[in-house]
Amino acid sequence: MTQDYKRIGTEEAFMTPLVVDLFKKGVEDGSISDPGFVGMYKLLFAPDTVKLPLLLDLEEGRIPEMDAAGIDMHVLAQTAPGLQIFDKDTAVGAMPDVNDYLVDVIARHPTRFAGLASIAPQDPEASAREIERARTKLDLGGVMINSHTHDEWLSDEKFWPILEAAEANDMPIYIHPQTPMTGLKAFTDYGIDLAFYGFAVEVSTHMLTIILSGALDRFPKLKFVLGHLGEGLPYWLYRFDYMQYSTDRPNLKMRPNPVKRELPNISDYIRRNIWITTSGMPAPEPIKFATKQMGEDHILYAMDYPYEMDREEVPMTEEGVPDAQKKKFWEDNARGLFHIDGPVGA
């Protein structure tokens, strides 16, 4: 079969020198004390680590690596935990600089890079304004939110100006994992707080709270994106619907939710409002199952570079995607979701 599509990776991380300096300062002066982040910083972001140069290199090393793997475009997003780990003033002050930096890189390589805006949920109104600027002035195609912000989720209505702006500007919100909330001590006690397990638990729980909060009834056109094949949610669709509260089995079902939902089942919201990517999950059989659960229009490719940079995962992923679906999976779904209108590839 002749390849009639481009390959777009939709969860590809980067950092800016400004954020590296802010991370370093926060760890050294103790203003960032979250134990999960401090551990992640030492592992991934400290000046002598392997990943940091790869996160900072957006041209000389990255583009040849993309070519070698057969990837035509990266949709770039500031790596976790982004600006959300900082105090409000620091985060809001850095927000436009990070997005302007990203746009400058895209301008130098418009066929190789697209991007997601960074925001500071610590100030929902400022973030809402930045979402509008990112779409209308910077031509960015979505928003990256690294799950909780100081142990708070988007299900809290104080963050809903962000959701309102994202819906109004058709900016999908990619919820990327970070370390679980500090109260979940068992995750760090047993070393399962990062990508091994804790990331998926934190994000999937976050997404369920958004659904159950009524946010997707208030903002029915809002789009969310979850990586790692949906952080486990597609596997649970039947269980969610079956275990919804009912009067005949109240001891086994959900407790009554005070928020009235418009759609009958939790799975209806997941299938309507959520798109999933394959970041870090290239195994063919899970891809087939997730596609069956979510529909072929709601699944798209991601590598999760540079945390995952195995060139063999591209042909492995191909095995999970039928030929008739490949163009949607690799290119068209990403184009439509993230507003990628121009040429893609070298």
From TrEMBL:
Keyword Hydrolase (UniProt): yes
Domain Amidohydrolase-related: 60-339
Cited Pfam families: Amidohydro_2
UniProt record, GO biological process: secondary metabolic process
The keyword Magnesium appears for this protein: no
One GO CC term, this protein: cytosol
GO molecular function, a single term: carboxy-lyase activity
Keywords: Hydrolase, Lyase
PANTHER family assigned: 2-AMINO-3-CARBOXYLMUCONATE-6-SEMIALDEHYDE DECARBOXYLASE (PTHR21240), AMIDOHYDROLASE-RELATED DOMAIN-CONTAINING PROTEIN-RELATED (PTHR21240:SF30)
Protein name in the entry: Amidohydrolase
Species whose genome carries this gene: Parasphingopyxis marina
